[in-house]
Amino acid sequence: MARLADYFVLVAFGPHPRGSAEGQGQILQRFPEKDWEDNPFPQGIELFCQPSGWQLCPERNPPTFFVAVLTDINSERHYCACLTFWEPVEPTQEGLCTEDTAEREEEAGEGGPVGLSTAAPGPPGQLFAPKTLVLVSRLDHAEVFRNSLGLIYTIHVEGLNVGLENVVGNLLTCIIPLAGGSQRTISLGAGDRQVIQTPLTDSLPISRCSVALLFRQLGITNVLSLFCAALTEHKVLFLSRSYQRLSDACRGLLALLFPLRYSFTYVPILPAQLLEVLSTPTPFIIGVNAAFQAEAQELLDVIVADLDGGTVTVPECVHIPPLPEPLQSQTHSILSMVLDPELELADLAFPPPTTSTSSLKMQDKELRAVFLRLFAQLLQGYRWCLHMVRIHPEPVIRFHKAAFLGQRGLVEDDFLMKVLEGMAFAGFVSERGVPYRPTDLFDELVAHEVARMRADDSHPQRVLRHVKELAEQLYKNENPYPAVAMHKVQRPGEASHLRRAPRPFPRLDEGMVQWIVDQATAKMQGAPPAVKAEKKTTVPSGPPMTAILERSSGLHGNSARRLEVVRNCISYVFEGKMLEAKKLLPAVLRALKGRAARRCLAQELHLHVQQNRAVLDHQQFDFVVRMMNCCLQDCTSLDEHGIAAALLPLVTAFCRKLSPGVTQFAYSCVQEHVVWSTPQFWEAMFYGDVQTHIRALYLEPAEDRDPSQVCGDSLGPRDGAGLALAHVRPLGQVGEALTQEDERSALDVASEQRRLWPTLSREKQQELVQKEESTVFSQAIHYASRMSYLLLPLDSSKSRLLRERAGLGDLESASNSLVTNSMAGSVAESYDTESGFEDAETCDVPGAVVRFINRFVDKVCTESGVTSDHLKGLHVMVPDIVQMHIETLEAVQRESKRLPPIQKPKLLRPRLLPGEECVLDGLRVYLLPDGREEGAGGSRGGPALLPAEGAVFLTTYRVIFTGMPTDPLVGEQVVVRSFPVAALTKEERINIQTPSDQYLPDGLQLRSCTFQLLKMVFDEEVGSDSAELFRKQLHKLRYPPDIRGTFALTLGSAHTPGRPPRATKDKGPSFRTLSRNLMKNAKRTIGRQYVTRKKYSPPSWEHRGQPPPGDQEDEISVSEELEPSTLTPSLALKPSDRMTMSSLVERACCRDYQRLGLGTLSSSLSRAKSEPFRISPVNRMYAICRSYPGLLIVPQSVQDNALQRVSRCYRQNRFPVVCWRSGRSKAVLLRSGGLHGKGVVGLFKAQNAPSPGQSQADSSSLEQEKYLQAVVSSMPRYADASGRNTLSGFSSAHMGSHVPSPRARVTTLSNPMAALASRRTAPRGKWGSVRAGGRSGGLSTDVGTRLAGMGPPQANGAPPDPGFLRPQRAALYIIGDKAQLKGVRPDPLQQWELVPIEVFETRQVKGSFKKLLKACVPGYPATEPGSASFLCSLEDSEWLIQIHKLLQVSVLVVELLDSGSSVLVSLEDGWDITTQVVSLVQLLSDPFYRTLEGFRLLVEKEWLSFGHRFSHRGAHTLAGQSSGFTPVFLQFLDCVHQVHLQFPMEFEFSPFYLKFLGYHHASHRFRTFLLDSDYERIELGLLYEEKGERRGQAACRSVWEYVERLSKRTPVFYNYLYAPEDAEVLRPYSNVSNLKVWDFYTEETLAEGPPYDWELAQGPPEPPEEERPDGGAPQSRRRVVWPCYDNCPRAQPDAISQLLEELQRLETELGRPPERWKDAWDRVKAAQRLEGRQDERGTPSSLLVSSVPHHRRSLGVYLQEGPVGSTLSLSLDSDQSSGSSASGSRQAARRSTSTLYSQFQTAESENRSYEGTLYKKGAFMKPWKARWFVLDKTKHQLRYYDHRVDTECKGFIDLAEVEAVAPGTPTLGAPKTVDEKAFFDVKTTRRVYNFCAQDVPSAQQWVDQIQSCLSDA
What we know:
Blueprint: E1 2-3, E2 7-14, E3 24-31, H1 45-49, E4 64-71, E5 77-88, H2 91-100, E6 128-137, H3 142-158, H4 164-173, E7 175-176, E8 183-186, E9 194-197, H5 210-218, H6 220-231, E10 235-240, H7 243-257, E11 265-267, E12 284-289, H8 293-297, E13 302-306, E14 311-313, H9 327-339, H10 360-378, E15 386-390, E16 396-399, H11 401-408, H12 414-421, H13 423-432, E17 436-437, H14 441-448, H15 450-456, H16 460-478, H17 510-526, E18 537-538, H18 559-575, H19 578-591, H20 595-607, E19 614-616, H21 618-633, H22 643-651, E20 654-659, E21 662-665, H23 679-698, H24 707-710, H25 721-728, H26 746-756, H27 762-791, H28 800-804, H29 824-834, H30 845-863, H31 868-896, E22 918-927, E23 948-955, E24 958-965, E25 975-980, E26 984-993, E27 999-1008, E28 1013-1018, H32 1024-1038, H33 1047-1054, H34 1061-1080, H35 1082-1085, H36 1101-1104, H37 1135-1146, H38 1148-1156, E29 1173-1176, E30 1192-1195, H39 1200-1207, E31 1217-1221, E32 1228-1232, H40 1237-1243, H41 1256-1273, H42 1292-1296, H43 1312-1315, E33 1326-1327, E34 1372-1377, E35 1392-1397, H44 1402-1416, H45 1428-1437, ...
Parallel strand pairs: 10-12, 10-13, 11-12, 19-20, 32-36, 33-37, 34-35, 34-36
Antiparallel strand pairs: 1-7, 2-3, 2-6, 4-5, 5-6, 8-9, 13-14, 15-16, 17-18, 20-21, 22-23, 22-28, 23-24, 24-25, 26-27, 27-28, 29-30, 31-32, 38-39, 38-44, 39-40, 40-41, 42-43, 43-44
């Protein structure tokens, strides 16, 4: 029973004492005047009566009512019901007030401040002051309070004849029951009647309609947010203009939190004067009037709920964790069913008649029922995780949070973690954990309804039914008697507040009220207390816990089999079958990743412990320790699955004898785990053990063991048997059934004891308390020793343990397990590991351990009620325990050092390249998995090759790891992972726990740009000095101070095998003089102009390396005949200059210019027409532009001296030069750097001729304009009307908008792919796939016309619309940076047009590449399974988007060139993206560049000669270290790879060739890709070096030479699908969806390392590319090919490689020298072609004619047809030219295409106009020799070979140099049998060649053929 009201208070308006503008509340009267003993009067009540402040009002407001809540110091809530009415201000009051508020003039309103003026006593009306009647009660009966105060107010206003004192006295003396569902009628003595119903259960909150109102105001999502925020201890602030609504909202939120009680600040109505409370650091739920919203907005960490606006605002810095799924979504959907039942029926075709919705009160209970269900689901099984630490005198209960989270499968869940750590849950445990108490609805629900809730989850209607059942119970609890009599309470009349009150509220007679109260008190004392005894019962525990969401076990699905393996292995270990155990161990270690297997291991090991101890031999001990370590390494610091708890008794049980009297226990080998240094783990373990022993105290002796035996030997290194058994099933492992013996849980025992407690005698009670206390004390001693076992390292002089685990010295933060964050341990961890120094205190290991144990002991003993004397005793004992243990450990450590060391595997030495030297010999390391699943036996299966144990070697060229998998089941596979030192991009230190059970501190992660990652930790035997030395040496090799320090340059100079030192010395000066002379003569020769013409073809690579004239039979030199117009006599050319020119002409770019017919160097065979372009040697001394080649193609009309001025307008002086010309449209492709700012403006100014006074800038701009004009005028005229020079697809609208006008146009490339959507009808050119759609994709979203806005393609190849013809085309398109071309005035004559595009910068390429590296080789295991995380990372890198943009721009340029317009690419500095674009354009446009020779030429010309900065972009030296690796060339190769994928038959080289170049452009094995330009290479003497020496088998210095050598031996670079078509132009799709990730980035060959160093990659048996060393037959032995281990192309070669290899093998068996693969391949193709021809003659309408589409043929048909393309057109007889068949004529027609094809070095693959045997006289004093000669009209060459099938050309005569062919005479040594007329001579500009045919007719034929060839030219 309790008083309905404690105090009645009358509060009135009074002036502010400090003269403030506002008034203040004054308590006029309070009853009773003396405080109740049990309930003092609450202070500050006057503030809460008027929360917005006490102010006067100009009009009389209606009375208001609300209930404020005050909380006292004991957390008791007091409900203050306030009824406020307004009375006229008395004159004295008014006067006082007007003085204070004289200056204020503010608007008046309800609750607002009032303006008063001193001039008049007041406004015309009257001022009104508030007066408040307050009831203070500890009960929450708001309606009764409203009625009671209303009655008092009515009596006053209506002047009823009732004494107010009586009413107040009756109110204060009214006694009502607290709970129990009773009904009480009360009357206050004014003819009124009220019925008070008490709730059935006191513990369930009363909500009335507040929850339903809260949902109506804020909505489901917002209320759920607030619910989660309140539970996770965030600050919640409600805003509303209504105080009653604020009270209801706060009450509603608290009702939702049941069964948890909110224990922080709770103020539903906060007065304005206390607003600073909002900045308190603790959580709160507070309501504030909306008038103070501005103050709320300044709070940064407060969640604001605006009830009037229906919004919840969560600040950015606040994260509210949501409910765990699926509870979040389930709760949301149930709430919507309750709040909006019509939602389910909204879509029905025939909705049922409208259902009656629940009343607001009922809906309120339904909503609460949903949350009650939610808590039952969240906390299901919580009682299984309670630790009963003490039963008497009062229960002490602790909750095992980690076990609960582990069992529920919610370890990662942020929400539940925070709830369990919160104060509300701590209160829940202490209140509801008690085993013997009254129960309520929640206890029933969580114990008995769990199964039903789980079954109902998938049936919404059943869930709703359950919710309604619960709601009924909640409603009944609040309203036990529904048919209750109505209240009868008088109310004031309508508008009674407006009537003039007869008088102010009277002063009541205190004496009379006090007398009534005293009377009632006296009566109460006499009456017996009508207290209903609470019905206490044992609280049901409910079913054991289950995971909240049954997750599929994934990889560990077949767990039964795994558990069997674990059991078998353990039984083998204990039976001594070590070999069997060793076989099973790797499988066991893998299985132990699963939880079930770890539990199984603990249980099995328990079975082998007898009498608390198990002595093992060394091998057994090692096995057990390894398995324990494996179990523990995945344990988190919380040990939520109880694995560490189960193993704790075992680590003190298993031991081995080291020597007599010295025993080593397992704990000394399993200390390296974070769980041991986590205080929460030890607390949970301690409480669990205490519970076991307390339970044992109260069980019948028959049921249990003698408790003294259990905790008897607490100081030894052994645990009681009972303890061991208890831990087989630690409390957390509730999923397992209890054994018969354990039927009664500790809670059951405790419940029984609490029931009996009141019946026991005082002595018995004392005895039980004492027993319990001593049990806890003995356990504390036991745990002190246990903790010392696991915290003291074997070598206690080392402080390593403390630094590398959670720092034991700093764990004060973990003092309160209820409030503490669970990561307290790791807070300390980061503290020590990051700082590089050791704290003096932490170095004292024993001291730190003692402090750690003492803190633990303090905490647990205080919580468990251990007496202070016992606690002091413990503090004295702890240092002794630690010291004793240290002494024991010293002996163990001494003896353990004498054990024979574990045999480590032998180091495997890697194979090295010739010239590669070891810098650091093998350092033992473990190579760890790096996130790529394949090597670690991931989801794709396969063996776990990693982790591997071996050594890392550092050589001058590579970093190499060789070793073997640590898992012996994988087999004796050698694991090799290496990468070139020069490719290293990042090196970082790491700390990792290795699977091999040792904690290895020094780890290193090396990442390379060849997509290799070495993640390794050094073995213990490798000192930190060695590891540091390794890092330093690696850094030194990676970033040499000078480029001369790179491997490619040190290789040849220092160690050239087999050459006398003199040779090296001799050749030096010639190179150096060359470069010196080049520089010296620059000034002297810069004015001279060479306009030399000469048809030139390079000698084969074999001969290029040989010495100059004199040493070689047919050295062909360059003639430099000057034009007649030049005045300089030829004698003025110094020898060094001749040499310079000769060298320059031999460069790749010059050879390519010759091929393209862009310019010539000799005029001996004069041409009929003058060339539009010429080769200018103006830059031969690199004086104009250092990054350009020496010879450049410029318009014929531009003089060399003008070029100097033009170059100044361009960045890096890279002025526009021609780099390619289309053979068909004659359009040219130019490249340059971007424009300088000042040059841009002048370039396009429409200006007159410069006046003499013009500035230098203007004149150079004019030169620039003239230059562009000259370029345009050098283009062919588009006079022909055939329409082939139109750009089909320009839409007529687009054309119409550009009528010729004085202003030219700037075209913005907004979507270049749109330009390509339609193609002209001729079958030239092709798209990369049959799919026609989806090729759009914007390159930049700029405005402006699209470059080719397309209309629909013409049907059936109809001719283009005449409106699309030439007049609208610009002759030249300039593609430049959008930013650079801004504001440029275009060319007035419309001869050129600007195409501004947005391109990415090199820094973006660098950033993108870093992300790509991390995506392909993450370095850590993926967070998400499968490929999802890889694809996300790949998308984030934006690498494919950059590839897409490059291909897009390139295809655009290809289109423009193909349509007859020339293009100038002028982007950035002209050496990165420009190079990528022009190279791709040439590759797509010209089939020659898709051959091996052509691609080489393309790279040499565009990348090497035109100065791509390989050294700068590759960070080759120390100076470039900061700039990092920028893979511009690799990106180009990736683009080529994408094109190769789409057109596999168009490329002569294989995809491996691209990977090979990608690898070696960064490897520094070859000199090809060193330095930034030809100028730098000459300066270093690299460029023409090979001419000066004859190389044998020495290491190749050029990558091309290496490719050539390798190609002779193996077809690895050759593409068998190569069958080029007539169509010359490729147009690949460039959308990201069409692009594939290059397998170069992802593939790996762990058997041999990267397969790009061919000499090293021949390790595995049966290499298909080479002959078998033994020449024997292949063995039929099966072989397993592992995708990431073996080199799949070599292990499983394609059919053609296999057949070629088989052929070689058979030839070797027959004793014949094996034929070269290329000869065999060419022969097969030739035979195929001949068959095809015969078939064709026989059946004219054969397959070839009838069914082969014109634009695409398969390879098979090709082989039959004898296709075009020089590779496949084979002529076997010298007199056979193309035949007369259909195929032959087609071939003749295609001859022009064929001329562009391969100049590959093999014989059959070349064009042979005429061939046969001739005798040739050698050079001076050399004999005559018979050679096989080939006349090639296409290349204008006479080549010779040693014999007919020879694939290597031994030399050639360029017919461009031939002056005459005349009959010759026999000389000394000529063949004797030959007629004299069979001799003839060929005279060239350099020498005379003597030939002799086999007979006279063939000699005549040779002469005729050579003559006709000369006349054709």
